């Protein structure tokens, strides 16, 4: 049996038979091949520009904070620029480089196996939880830990527990401390804290590399740079802390918009190992969501504004997603597959509706969902 996923009955996508699925997958693969065969100088120029922006914006922002951080306008500018630098480094540089998107350059500084980014999570942990687990088992409940991160309930297939009543406030503090939660994700702390299936001794052992990375990041932002700033120690400390919060809030909002919107589907698997490549492509599309915006919005999101295309082609240079997206959208329209796309604000609002809905047991969440649809339907009526 080839079809291994249980698709939700509420899906907006048309059901495809085996022949249609195979042809759909073939055409998606052809789009990928056309782009991958054209990768070259322009893509190299792009990623080097991004790397230079990260380097010089960090130097400039830290220089402002250390030299004149006691002046409020300088502090605001320096802190904002440092936050921007950290966003671009994490989203457009680090995330994409660690996917191996630029390994073909043979530049050790842009090699996915060697790159380690400016955040709490180690490169090795991220590549396991994200590159392997998440991108292989995208949105499969029980296999993809990104379905709620062990903290949130975002699917009817997740058994309800009383702690999920706090879905919304937990999501808010998850955003505030996002880099720390991402760093800890590979440890599966809920297994030790809640389910008691993992000992704290095992957690401590598994966290060996993470402890080193945590120490390095804390010493860099909160000890080294404040100390060398001398009398500007406090403005530098505060600037680094706020810059990290800016990065955390933005990166988590982008991730939420790509995974937790109302129309993003989750799946149950009987035997995912037998899933065909075409079925995998369909799952990536139905389990993802895009948001529209300006070129700078795409850069600041690491081009995860095109989350559908990223899930389809994680090893493709992300700067090419914008040209691929219209082709994937047209193909989805032809085959009756829902292409989940809206502007940033619409997608972000729907995230919180989903979190609120799934904070309740299923029988109540369905009533809440129906009420919300009636309310939004009233606003949609012409006057």
From TrEMBL:
GO terms for biological process: lipid metabolic process. CDD domains: Delta6-FADS-like. InterPro entries: FA_desaturase_dom (IPR005804), Fatty_acid_desaturase (IPR012171). It holds the Pfam family FA_desaturase. Residues 74-341 form the Fatty acid desaturase domain. It comes from the Bacteria. GO terms for molecular function: oxidoreductase activity, acting on paired donors, with oxidation of a pair of donors resulting in the reduction of molecular oxygen to two molecules of water. One of its GO terms (cellular component) is membrane. This is Fatty acid desaturase.
């Amino acid at each position: 049996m080839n079809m291994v996923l249980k698709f939700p009955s509420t899906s907006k996508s048309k059901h495809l038979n085996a022949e249609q699925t195979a042809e759909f997958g073939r055409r998606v693969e052809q789009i990928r091949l056309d782009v991958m065969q054209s990768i070259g100088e322009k893509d190299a120029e792009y990623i080097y520009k991004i790397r230079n922006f990260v380097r010089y914006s960090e130097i400039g922002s830290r220089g402002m904070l250390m030299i004149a951080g006691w002046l409020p306008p300088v502090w605001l500018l320096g802190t904002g620029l440092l936050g921007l630098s950290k966003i671009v480094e994490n989203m457009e540089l680090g995330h994409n480089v660690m996917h191996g998107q630029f390994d073909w350059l043979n530049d050790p500084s842009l090699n996915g196996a060697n790159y380690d980014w400016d955040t709490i999570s180690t490169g090795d942990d991220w590549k396991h939880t994200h590159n392997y687990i998440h991108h292989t088992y995208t949105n499969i409940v029980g296999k993809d830990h990104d379905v709620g991160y062990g903290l949130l309930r975002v699917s009817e297939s997740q058994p309800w527990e009383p702690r999920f009543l706090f879905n919304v406030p937990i999501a808010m503090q998850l955003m505030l401390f996002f880099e720390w939660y991402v760093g800890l994700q590979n440890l599966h702390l809920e297994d030790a804290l809640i389910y008691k299936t993992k000992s704290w001794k095992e957690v401590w052992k598994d966290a060996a590399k993470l402890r080193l990375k945590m120490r390095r990041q804390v010493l860099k932002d909160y000890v080294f740079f404040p100390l060398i700033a001398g009398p500007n120690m406090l403005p530098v400390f505060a600037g680094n802390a706020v810059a990290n919060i800016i990065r955390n809030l933005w990166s988590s909002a982008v991730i939420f918009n790509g995974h937790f919107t109302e129309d993003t589907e989750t799946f149950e698997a009987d035997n995912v190992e037998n899933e065909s490549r075409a079925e995998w492509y369909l799952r990536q599309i139905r389990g993802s969501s895009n948001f529209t915006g300006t070129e700078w919005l795409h850069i600041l999101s690491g081009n995860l504004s095109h989350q559908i295309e990223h899930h389809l082609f994680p090893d493709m240079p992300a700067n090419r997603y914008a040209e691929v997206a219209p082709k994937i959208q047209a193909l989805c329209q032809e085959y009756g597959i829902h292409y989940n796309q809206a502007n940033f604000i619409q997608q972000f609002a729907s995230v919180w509706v989903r979190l609120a809905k799934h904070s309740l047991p299923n029988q109540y969440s369905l009533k809440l969902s129906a009420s919300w649809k009636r309310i939004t339907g009233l606003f949609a009526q012409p006057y």
